[in-house]
Amino acid sequence: MLDWSHLGKYRENNRLEAKRAQGGLPHSIWETYSAFANTFGGILLLGVTEGPDKTFSTVPLPDPDQLAADFWNTLSAPGTVNVNILSHHDVQVVESGGNRIVVIQIPRADRHDRPVYMGRDPFTGTYRRSGEGDYRCTPEEVRGMIRDQTDISLDTRVLSGADLDVFCPESVERYRREVESLRPGGGLSELETEAFLHRVGAMARDRRGTLHPTAGGLLMLGWETEIRREFPGYSLDYQEPGEPGTRILSSSGSWSGNLFDFYLQVYERVSRDFSAGSPVRQALREALVNALTHADYYDRRGLVIQRLPNQIRIANPGAFRVDVREVLAGGVSDPRNAVLIRLFRLIGAGGGQGGLSGIRAVWQSQGWQAPQIVESFGPDRTVLTLPLRPMPSTARLRQDIVVFLTDAAEASAAEIARGLAVDTQTLLPLLNVMEQDGILSGEGEGPGRHYRLSW
Predict the structure, then answer these.
(1) First to last CA, the chain
(2) What domain range is 412 assigned to?
(3) Is the full-model pTM beyond 0.85?
(4) Which residue among 70, 85, 227, 231 is least enclosed by CB atoms within 10 Å?
(5) Which domain-ending residue is among 348, 368, 387?
């Protein structure tokens, strides 16, 4: 028997698509396959209808086993889609409501397989999911997915048409002082400017052996006007709404406009209320550097940071290259800009707080509301919100549990606690109350007990 309440949560938040298949596969199934694979994944049902009240009911299928076989055969046929990302356990025939239906679980595709598209042309056959509908991706979105396929960091590219003049001399000098202060006696102080930039990765040799700036070096230490020649959509914007004179724009012309100088100015502003060496100050630096090093600077929308009264909001171009849940669990990293990561680590920035999972741990230790991460598409964007306020009241925490289980479908108390950055022992009594109230239903005993929404 299929658990419809469980599937209902997938429909609302994991992009479930209900299809009624009578007399063969619906043509739109391949649009949905592409859309799920290129977004967050989802479950596709054949032999199910959805009523006006958002409840599901099954309908008789002439031959569900043959329909499942037809799906596999068509999926494997040349020209249907460019890649099969499913395994056989992802396609099942199950009994529910007195009928046998086909359940197809489509995961989010690995970045090496994206874009997943219909036909033979990614620019006409690539789809994504928005709300409850599929939409055809723009050429810009498709190009972004293609860029992310490569295992060679794009910021390592040698810019053969550029030379030392693209760098801001003052930025290079400031950066050099930072590096040498952390690595005295490393032999860097004796190097000429070009040799120093080569040593740190801001310059590299082309096929002829001539030194030129790397894309990462240009972003880190270049003039804004030169950066925009290579990255037309490049933009950095720091805002403190309501405060006069507290907006920092890379295009203002009053400073270099590069990542390094932006980092120096913004880090001091976002962390000014916390003492030097405090875990919060270090976590804020980690969050800032993560955004600067993981952004897709070829995207047309720039990076925006807002310091609001009760939160810090960091929005950068580009989606996650791996599943967000894996990132939050810790130990998973798939950097987009390897040169930028190296350049920041040479000045002691980045890689010191365990990534996003470490930032969440710091927030939990402060008793603050958990950081929130949201991915959006069209164009791709990742938004990290860092609340600067205490944990919510019991009523608010109940609401956060409902939201978490809407997204996760089901989870253990420990998983919910990690997701909401609260203590498990604090959370358990509330879970029990919500279960008694009929809001949650649980299955299993002890630490292995899992909870899900009852509706």
Answers:
(1) 17
(2) 394-453
(3) no
(4) 70
(5) 387
